[in-house]
């Protein structure tokens, strides 16, 4: 018998056991983060430079403003959703279920109902942003203060109360929309969907400052997130002050969602989509990898989606409609999957 035939099985096993360097790099969490970062950078570069007609001095600032808005919103919603799913220990829930989107639409509707559509369209962007963000933050603060007072009944009561308030806001909004003038409703209809086409430059600075402040405030609890993901009982047994940490993180979540919603409008299922894609894509549950992955996926989804809306669909639809359709379908899939588990 030849020596080659005897060594062939062992050599085959050795080749199967060896992995190419790029395959090994792609299986590591940091390697996948680098891949996502490169894809996000390429999409941003493509968005800024594709089909430029005219002067670059005119085109780049306008497109750059959109890119900054998409980066801020993608990061804020993704970060807030991962934090919310960690403290609730549930991957189907999103901060939108507390009622932020419904409250945003109620504010717009009340302004149009009481003062007319002209007031809404001519109101200075800074005033409108402060009213929207301030009322959403005030609502979240009131909800937390009422439901965090008693130990052991806060978190799921908070989600349940948020769903009830959201349903009430939606019903009251629908009632008011039936009473307003049809021309005013046409103006109000534009506010129902998120838009990155008309974000004022001065608001971007305020939004960036708000997101950075919320992120900085959350860093003190960053090393506790992996423990919180184990559940309330395990976190307490491991020495985490669960109630106080959750209260601080819920304030961060409220701030991030309020700023992003007040900046561009509601995108209901966006956080659910990118957060769960990040969990699926990353080979680890550690938040130091999952949060950046969710943020990069959020930027990729927004920049790539806006590119499709502008270049393929030629503005015949909006980005939020596409994201809500895909995210809503994914939400139904997850509910059916959990019900069978």
UniProtKB/TrEMBL annotation:
Entry superkingdom: Bacteria
Chain segments annotated as transmembrane: 33-52, 64-83, 103-122, 129-148, 154-180, 249-277, 289-309, 315-336
Pfam family, one: FecCD
Major subcellular site: membrane
Gene Ontology terms for molecular function: transmembrane transporter activity
Localization in the cell: Cell membrane
Keywords tagged on the record: Cell membrane, Membrane, Transmembrane, Transmembrane helix, Transport
GO terms (BP aspect): siderophore-iron import into cell
Family that this chain belongs to: Belongs to the binding-protein-dependent transport system permease family. FecCD subfamily.
Protein name, UniProt field: Iron chelate uptake ABC transporter family permease subunit
Lineage: Bacteria, Bacillati, Chloroflexota, Caldilineae, Caldilineales
